[in-house]
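Board notes (copied after class):
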Amino acid sequence: MTAETQLPQATGSCCSPSGSCHDGASADAKQGGVTTVYQVTGMTCGHCEGAVSSEISEIEGVTSVKAVASTGQVTVTSQAPLDEEAVRAAVDEAGYELTGQA
């Protein structure tokens, strides 16, 4: 019932009230970050995604991490380019293997 009462309030798309997915800069652009996609082997579920994301998030300068088990890709946004060995160590600590950039 709650969803029905909220539906009439929504306008446009799910992206923004005005219906545009491109209202202003994205969150990454606002942070002025560098986005790098890494390939990680061994992730099979949401728990794996969380473990990898948690470890990488602890690296200094990291502003966001999104791990996707089905593709093995981990998208990391940081304030500056990261040392790949630091990312490799974080992924290793989580129990997975970084194979390089995707």
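Comment from the instructor: The beta strands are 34-41, 62-68, 73-78, 97-101. Residues 1-31 have pLDDT under 50 and may be disordered.
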